[in-house]
């Protein structure tokens, strides 16, 4: 019963350390507080991780108390930093996945096969990655393993 939660926690810890090693980001996290929330904007741009994950890292480092941690999440919600895009903050586009799908389409894979490969509907795949040029209605056979 507790296994999925433990695995998820371990994955989160690994991802956090992989994307923003505490030895490297630690000194910058020391400046984070409810009075300096703008620091999160800069750290997000520098490190490419969400502001909420930076708040979690600051708490893990002991920079934020439980009360400050809750206050930071309230502030993230109130200022629109928690979800969605923000003006002036660039969003990432999944270029590698788009390029792989474009190459598969160029190699003759059909839209049906691309949908099966990505486990997405054609509309969802197109909205996420764009429509690959050269995709056909069907011809080659793709086996998903």
TrEMBL record:
PANTHER family noted in UniProt: ANTITOXIN HIGA1, BLL7220 PROTEIN
Protein name: Uncharacterized protein
Organism this protein belongs to: Tsukamurella pulmonis
